[in-house]
Design goal:
The chain is mainly α and 807 residues long. Among the domains are: 90 residues, no CATH class; 201 residues, Clc chloride channel; 161 residues, Roll (CBS-domain). 54% of the residues lie in helices and 5% in strands. It contains 30 helices and 11 strands. A 3-stranded mixed beta sheet has the order 3-5-6. Strand 9, helix 29 and strand 10 form a beta-alpha-beta unit. The longest helix has 42 residues. The two termini are 42 Å apart. Belongs to the chloride channel (TC 2.A.49) family.
């Protein structure tokens, strides 16, 4: 561009390259966000550059005035700039604080702004609790619909139908004249024909429910499938997936979750409830400007919503808060902890008011054990932990292999057919066995149950009917296993194999599918079997030294239900690698403080064993499978590489795409944007010196140039683009320049070329950076993005670097 005006970068700005170098090399920020103190910035920037307006120096970007619509926002499948978002919120809060003393209205606005977060938590808790209650009631009714119908009212489930019947005995409380099986309705009350009719109706209803679920997901909300927790973790780390937390996803996920659970597939509703709660939070965020316009603040709300989801799923508000802190959240300040606790409390209270299970409890399988555990029982508890770790690691590998096959073969092109085939296989194999025919929640409730004299379950069918009642509660002393118990043992063994295999193929299909309940079911079955074995061993060998003193003849010392609970925690921990939150959730389920130690032992053993076989939990494995740009905080970087080894451009690549603070025209900038796909560009003093000035985002640049062409008079392709504060004098009849100083980030994070990558990775994790510029003696060398780090880590782990691409 041969232009004699100020567009040729030859005017005297009063600032030398050396002065700019000195500036970029002396700023140090002790906190996670650059200081926004206007006095500090003005004092530093006056050193050699001259006075700057506060909008240029006092803020990271001039976004408070919102002069150009769209500037400061993000495109789909991009990562937010945590530093910029926190700076925006800090500026907004400072402005409100300074104005509140000026008038009563400003004071009221300040109070409402401070209270808006608590009001938002209240709304999230109320809606999430109401939706969870509706899902529980609907799923229970539709699950029972596969077995029959209530004559008193079609809307009644089996249990509700028989509640008011006076012809129901306690031993046969599931049988009443008002409830009719499908065989009875079709005129075949008993015999082989009745079995066949009930079998066919069970399979037909299961296929219908699953077909409706997968069709609704595919047609209306593709994001409603799966668990949702891997995507929630990725979103909370700063990634943007438009529509994943939208209203259509909420509606379809709520409806199809009921259908999927009712179909009898080996899945649970607990994981998807976290997704449902986060959808509620995202929708309510649009009611408050503070959260609608700030992506970082919105993610604080989503972290609290994740706690709400677990709270209503398990009836464990404290466990939900710890789950969000330990497993899901990327940024969890103390303020979010308080609000998470409040939202989880409101959600639990709402669910308790609805009372979906009719037992005045928040969950279906609430139990209370009355017998203490003995120190020697830690050995079988450790064995359950080992089993949980082994199964968790094996499940993750098998499920990821199957999901990868689904992605890379034609199988992924037929999601409806896959769901129907898995449902058909599940229903056909599940119906003959009563422990697989019942829902997973009912199965866990049955396995957790502590036998008493009035129990009619086969798991409580012991020999020696005339036995003494234990001194503690109404439990029974150890007895010899009866015929019904032996039958139950064989059925549970078959159910264990069935659940272990079918869950591998079920999790990850195009229907809402949680993993908490199936994992707990596998562990509960294994634990109950081990508990029965220990009980019989103590009964027949009570004279052994290990049983003397605490498990003598006639004593009630072994509780198989406790083993089931410990096994459930072990298997869930082996799959998800949860520890503290898992123990608290299981403690809130049972209400017994004295069983925390067995749960801790099994959970830690499970995690150690699973970590020895593979460091990733199921959610981290699915994040890597889908190629989400997620930096796992728990993963250590142990390689001795430098920033210069990872930055772009590398040897053989073209020069780094960059802008100059002056000297470029609108046409040249637009050509650079069109020829590249980068999310941002460094701004330097000149291409010869390459002294760094700042960084500008691609989206902001495109929107600003488009806005200038539409609304600024005289802007053409030959117009100059300036990133300077002051416009130098220009010749007469010169084209008006386009000033883009307001969208320039004047304090981009930089590292030197010799910075160890271990430090760079730590900076990206703790600050949530999108990119970091690499300099040498103040001159720009290259750029490191989040995906560059992920690709480098994959390459160091002997994985395909190109797998770190969102798919």
């Amino acid at each position: 561009m041969d232009n004699n005006g100020f567009c040729n970068d030859s005017y005297n700005s009063g600032t030398s390259d050396d002065e700019l170098l000195d500036l970029t090399g002396t700023l140090e920020f002790p906190d996670d966000v650059p200081p926004m103190n206007h006095d500090y910035n003005s004092a530093v920037l006056n050193n050699g550059i001259g006075n700057r307006h506060q909008n240029g120096a006092g803020k990271l970007m001039d976004l408070m005035d919102e002069t150009v619509p769209g500037v400061g926002t993000y495109e789909d499948f991009n990562t937010i700039d945590w530093v910029r978002e926190k700076s925006k919120d800090r500026d907004r809060h400072r402005e409100i604080t300074n104005k509140k003393t000026q008038s009563t209205w400003d004071l009221l606005f300040s109070v409402s702004d401070a209270f808006s977060g608590w009001l938002l938590m209240l709304l999230i808790g109320l809606l999430s609790g109401a939706l969870a209650g509706g899902i529980d009631i609907s799923a229970q009714w539709m699950t029972d619909l596969k077995g029959g119908v209530c004559l008193n009212g079609f809307r009644y489930s089996h249990e509700h139908c028989c509640w008011s019947s006076r012809e129901t005995t306690f031993q046969e409380r599931d049988k009443c004249p008002q409830w009719k099986s499908w065989a009875e309705l079709f005129g075949a009350p008993e015999g082989a024909s009745a079995y066949v009719v009930n079998y066919l109706m069970y399979v037909s209803w299961a296929l219908l429910f699953s077909f409706l679920a997968v069709t609704l997901v595919r047609v209306f909300a593709p994001y409603a499938c799966g668990s949702g927790i891997p995507e929630i973790k990725t979103i909370l780390s700063g990634f943007i997936i438009r529509g994943y937390l939208g209203k259509w996803t909420l509606i379809i996920k709520t409806v199809t979750l009921v259908l999927a659970v009712s179909s009898g597939l080996s899945l649970g509703k607990e994981g998807p409830l976290v997704h449902v709660a986060c959808c509620c939070a995202n929708i309510f965020c649009y009611l408050f400007t503070k959260y609608r316009k700030n992506e970082a603040k919105r993610r604080e709300v989503l972290s609290a919503a994740a706690a709400v989801g677990v709270s209503v799923a398990f009836g464990a508000p404290i466990g939900g808060v710890l789950f969000s802190l330990e497993e899901v959240s990327y940024y969890f300040p103390l303020k979010t902890l308080w609000r998470s606790f409040f939202a989880a409390l409101v959600a639990a209270f709402t669910l308790r008011a609805i009372n979906p299970f009719g037992n005045s409890r928040l969950v279906l399988f609430y139990v209370e054990f009355h017998n203490p555990w003995h120190l020697l029982e830690l050995v079988p508890f450790i064995l359950l932990g080992i089993f949980g770790g082994l199964w968790g690691a094996a499940f993750i590998r098998a499920n990821i292999a199957w999901c990868r096959r689904r992605k890379t073969t034609r199988l992924g092109h037929y999601p409806v057919l896959e769901v129907l085939l898995v449902t058909l296989t599940t229903a056909v194999l599940a119906f003959p066995n009563e422990y697989t025919r019942m829902s997973s929640s009912e199965l866990i409730s049955e396995l957790f149950n502590d036998c008493s004299l009035l129990d009619s379950s086969k798991l409580c069918d012991y020999a020696n009917a005339n036995v003494t009642i234990s001194k503690v509660g109404n439990g029974l002393s150890n007895r010899a296993a009866g015929r019904g118990l032996f039958t139950a043992i064989w059925e549970l063994c078959l159910a264990l194999l069935f659940k272990m295999v079918i869950t591998v193929f079920t999790f990850g299909m195009k229907v809402p599918s949680g993993l908490f309940i199936p994992s707990m079911a596998v562990g509960a079955i294994a634990g109950r079997l081990l508990g029965i074995g220990m009980e019989q061993l103590a009964y027949y060998n009570h004279e052994w030294d290990v049983f003397k003193g605490w498990c003598s003849e006639g004593a009630d010392c072994i509780t198989p239900g406790l083993y089931a609970m410990v096994g459930a925690a072990a298997c869930l921990g082996g799959v998800t690698r949860m520890t503290v939150s898992l123990v608290v959730i299981m403690f809130e389920l049972t209400g017994g403080l004295e069983y925390i130690v067995p749960l801790m032992v099994a959970t830690m053993t499970s995690k150690w064993v699973a970590d020895a076989l593979g460091r990733e939990g199921i959610y981290e494995a699915h994040i890597r499978l889908n190629g989400y740009p997620f930096l796992e905080p728990k993963e250590e970087f142990k390689h001795k590489t430098l920033a210069v080894d990872v930055m772009r451009p590398r040897r053989g690549d073209g020069p780094l795409a960059m802008l100059t603070r002056s000297g470029m025209t609108v046409g040249e900038v637009e050509a650079l944007v069109d020829d590249t796909s980068y999310n941002g560009f460094p701004v330097v003093v000149s291409k010869d010196s390459q002294w760094l000035v700042g960084f500008v985002l691609r989206r902001d640049l495109v929107i600003s140039l488009d806005n200038a062409r539409k609304h600024q008079e005289g802007v053409v392709s030959e117009s100059c683009v300036l990133f300077t504060e002051h416009t130098p004098s220009q010749p007469p009849n010169e084209l008006p320049p386009v000033k883009l100083r307001s969208i320039l980030d004047l304090s981009p994070f930089t590292v030197t070329d010799q910075t160890p990558m271990e430090i760079v990775v730590d900076i990206f994790r703790k600050l949530g950076l999108r990119q970091c510029l690499v300099t040498q003696n103040g001159r720009l060398l290259g750029i490191i993005t989040k995906k560059d780090i992920l690709k480098h880590m994959a390459q160091m782990a002997n994985r395909d670097p190109e797998s770190i691409l969102f798919n």
